Amino acid sequence: MRLNVDSLSVIYPAADGRPPVAALSQINLTIEDDEFVVALGASGCGKSTLLNLIAGFLSPTSGSLKLDDKLVSGPGADRAVVFQKHALLPWLNVLDNVAFGLQIQGVGKNARHETADKFIGLLGLNGFQQSPVYKLSGGMQQRVGIARALTCDPKILLMDEPLGALDALTREKAQELILNIWNDTHKSVFFITHSVEEALFMGTKLIVMSPRPGRIMHTFDLPFSREFLNGTPARQVKASREFICLREDVLKIIFADEEQAA
Amino acid sequence: MTDKISSPPRDAAGLIARLSRARPTRPGEIYGVPGQGNTLWLSACSIALFFFVWWLVTAMGWVKPLFVPSPMEIVAKFISIWNNGFIGTSFLDHLTISTVRVFGAFLLACVIGLPLGLAMGMSPVMRGIFDPPIEFYRPIPPLAYLPLMIIWFGIGETSKVLLIFLSVFAPVVLGARSGVKSAAIEQIHAAYSFGATRWQVMRYVIMPSAMPEILTAMRIGIGFGWTTLVAAEMVAATKGLGYMVLSASQFLQTPIVIMGIFVIAIIAFAFDLLMRFVERRLVPWKGRM
């Protein structure tokens, strides 16, 4: 798997007397097999625009986007998306929500329920197959969303602030869960977050983005998720000296970029 | 002791003191959303009070029976009409013909209006074509175009059903049309990201998420249908509840007028209860996600 973003720009045309807006400008990014790329930045820096481009919901003004040397021209099952919220279908139970992607692809009922069951187990949702999704907690709803994204065996998972709506404690648990699943399934991940700590902890590669125009300002390689997966407890990783130093550095960069842009 | 603090004193004097105080709908929840709470008992009291005042006013002779007959007289009239019919037609026939007219028109409006509304919600072309005529006739009172209906479609069933149909049609179409917007963009994107076609997105995301608004629109629509019934049975009808009420009023038969009003209200209310039940069964997730 290799996702190639090559000098990608998105410019929203002038409207109502406002000048054209460059949502993204000259983005270059490569996501390789097994990579966990985290995009971090202030609101309006174009993180979500970038994710929507990779997902195929938007098309670029210029530049190209290739998945395994094939031009991305629209949404497709090789790129699964996990949304922040509102993406589950409340009229379906957990099992049918998880099996929804397979249903769209025309997989028969028994076969798709069997696959869905496997991922329900993987996400620790066993016993909730028949529960209506609107009765689940926010954390469990997100797990349903992740299970649904995994069922169609995508090449890359696109996660748009998947933990943004969770409380702090649930969020830490969910971070560990996602890392473990990433480790088990060997999917590439493109992950958006507002939280610097989350970004540093989860990613193997961090891109820091800056607004007006949206662009990638800095790229870091990160060791921390590997440390966690090698057995160091999460809090210990996050409390280590290297982690805290890098956290403060990244925060400084973001605030400096903000001031420059303003 | 904590119980005492979290719930206001129950022994406070009288109903008014209790009503004026914030009452918890659940234990401990005094400062909840305004307007929560069960109203069953108050509604029962309100109805009982209404009938009591009605009875009192007539029993004391404060108003002439021509203007307000007593409740017992209404019941007596109902029994007599049930047994002997009204102007040569049995009560059940009056009831049936009106119900068939209203529900026939309602079904027709749903069969045509729901797909049209969905299509208008999903396609600018359909919206562009059908929005002007619907918005044009929608605010016009049915009584205003009743003469046209009769000139065009005669004095038979067609014009009657059509009149009711038109009054149900507009709210049903508008409800289905705005229901299309109920789906969150994330739900739509999720379907597309699995490779869904446009048709699959409509079938599996847009239509189910429009269900709550469609059911509400149907409830509103049938209400309009009953409202239009009397107008539809104004001209050249010889049967029907609306006809019964109108001709009774011409002979100053106030008890029959009131009885007819009650019968219409009870049928409409019973159907609304049924629709609410259907709503709870079909869309228990309404407003919860």
Task: Please tell me about this protein's structure.
The complex is a heterodimer of chains A (262) and B (289). With 262 residues, chain A is α/β, with parallel strands linked by helices. Chain A is built from ten helices and ten strands. In chain A, the strands form two sheets. In chain A, strands 6-7-8-3-9-10 form a six-stranded mixed beta sheet, sandwiched between helices. Chain A has a four-stranded antiparallel beta sheet with strand order 2-1-4-5, covered by helices on one side. In chain A, α4 crosses α5 and α7 (196-202) crosses α10. The mean pLDDT of chain A is 91. With 289 residues, chain B is mainly α. Chain B folds into three domains: 1-37, no CATH class; 39-68; 78-282, MetI-like fold, CATH 1.10.3720. In chain B, 73% of the residues lie in helices and 0% in strands. Chain B is built from twelve helices and no strands. In chain B, α4 (71-84) crosses α12, α8 (157-179) packs antiparallel against α10 and α10 (198-232) packs parallel to α11. Chain B is flat and about 75 Å long. The A-B interface holds A 55-57, 74-77, 79-81, 83-91, 100-101, 103-105, 132-134, 148, 152 and B 184, 186-187, 189-196, 200, 204-205, 208-209, 211, 283-285, 288-289.
Summarize the structure.
The complex is a heterodimer of chains A (262) and B (289). Helices cover 40% and strands 25% of the residues of chain A.
| Helix amount of chain B | over 70%
The major pleated sheet of chain B works out as: none
CATH class wording of the largest domain in chain B: Mainly Alpha
The N- to C-terminal Cα distance of chain B equals: 37 Å
Mean pLDDT of chain A, as a whole number? Answer: 91
- If strands are numbered along the chain, what order do they take across the biggest sheet of chain A? 6-7-8-3-9-10
Amino- and carboxy-terminal Cα gap of chain A? 38 Å
Low-confidence stretches of chain A: none
What's the SSE pattern of chain A?
A: EEEHEEEHHHHEHEHEEHHH
CATH topology of the largest domain in chain A: Rossmann fold
Shape, per Cα inertia axes of chain B? flat
List segments of chain B where confidence is low: pLDDT < 50 over at least 5 consecutive residues: 1-9
Global structural class of chain A: alpha/beta
